[in-house]
Amino acid sequence: MHTFHSPYGVYPHTATEPFELTPTTKKVRNFFYEFFIEKGRGPDIREVKEGLELTQDEVWDSLVQLQQGTQLMFVPGTENFAKMPPFAYMASRHRAFVDDGREYWVGCAGETPSTHMLFPGHTVTVKSTCPDCFEVITTVWKDGELLSADPEEAVVHIGKHPSQWGYNFVETCDNINYFKNLDHVAAWEKQFPEKAGATLPVQKVFAWVEAEARQRYWNYDYGPGLVGPQSVVGTTIELFKKAGFDVTNWENSSSQGE
To answer: Bridge partners of 148?
Structure first.
């Protein structure tokens, strides 16, 4: 019998400084990736334990490390998995369709281009839902390129301030979405002013996540994901701005001391 590392519903903070993943953690992480890629769903905790012939404590300690490094998300105090970026265990606003018939739920809009990098040589179509109007936004990806976007004016919107990312990454992912255009973002932010955030044209989203997308799964020894200035994709206002995001809302809130 293992012990839970966090009380129910109390999310441990995501790491801001690099740390070393254990050899067992790397093995568990790779098992998740290969399971998802092959079967179109993620494993449960028993399948991980039996598939790798590990003890309960070995599995659980590895899962906690992966959660700390944003590479697995589950409800604390339970064995209920939510996401294994770029994949999601549960229905999300984003569904990926590989040209060979495989299908996957994707964790967030930022992960949609990351997903296709796990399927080299294949075309991956992602159908996302605009939070404002519930209409479909379709992006098509292959080997590091955005082949098409419908509508072309679609943007990625982040409705959670980067200073809050490390407190609950499931909530963070839920606030990274595609919108049909900037008018739909404005309507959404008017209704939910607490979600006023940053936007990035769909044509730039892969460049934002490319450094991580090209290592995830392919580099067995890849380190944990972090939040803050040492994040591979950059989770500070300055680094979001450098990636091409319009961060006006965040700069204004910072200037007002919020």
So the answer is: 140
The CB density around residue 237, as the number of other CB atoms within 10 Å, is: 18
Q: Give dist(CA 243, CA 255) in Å, integer.
A: 21
Instruction: Please tell me the distance from the alpha carbon of residue 78 to that of residue 247, in angstroms, as a whole number.
Output: 36
Distance separating the N- and C-terminal Cα atoms of the chain: 44
Assess contact for 129 and 135: CB atoms under 8 A. yes
Q: Are 159 and 195 in contact (CB under 8 A)?
A: yes
> How do residues 34-88 score in pLDDT, each as one tens digit?
999 999 999 999 999 999 999 999 999 999 999 999 999 988 878 889 999 999 9
What digits encode the pLDDT tens for the residues 167-208?
Answer: 888 899 999 999 999 999 999 999 999 999 999 999 999 999
Reported pTM: 0.93
